[in-house]
Design goal:
Number of helices: 4
Strand order of the largest sheet: 1-2
Number of domains: 1
Radius of gyration: 25 Å
Strand content: under 5%
Helix content: 55-70%
Largest sheet: 2 strands, antiparallel
Number of strands: 2
Order of helices and strands: HHEEHH
Length: about 120
């Protein structure tokens, strides 16, 4: 069976590119977000938070010192995730631009234009 040209052509996967960009950015900046969240929680609960040691931080009757310490120290992982995420972002941008260019070249030119004097 012969398909019409419009049926054979697939739509541009913009949603897929958007979701993949979001995933790259979240994985890249997750350690930084973890440090910010730990700092905010410690400030709200008026707890001491540093990398030297675990300090008790009682919130609603539970000690969150260990999880806050872990979240704060997780920031060191950013030394690896930010360069890796930057490389992934460059690869994503190259693939996105190539896909956009190929998609634009496949698009029909449209109806011919009439001269302005007619």
């Amino acid at each position: 069976m012969n398909e019409t040209p419009s049926a054979a052509r697939r739509r541009f996967p913009a949603r897929l590119y958007g979701l993949s960009l979001l995933a790259i950015l979240l994985l890249t900046f997750f350690p930084v977000l973890s440090v910010v969240a730990a700092g905010l929680l410690a400030n709200i609960a008026e707890c001491e938070l540093n990398e030297a040691a675990v300090h008790p931080c009682v919130i609603a009757g539970h000690d969150f010192g260990d999880p806050l310490y872990t979240m704060a120290v997780l920031g060191w992982l950013a030394l690896a995730t930010i360069p890796f995420g930057g490389a992934l972002l460059i690869c994503w941008a190259v693939v996105f631009c190539i896909h956009l260019r190929r998609n634009a070249l496949r698009r029909p030119a449209g109806p011919p234009r009439r001269p302005a004097g007619d």
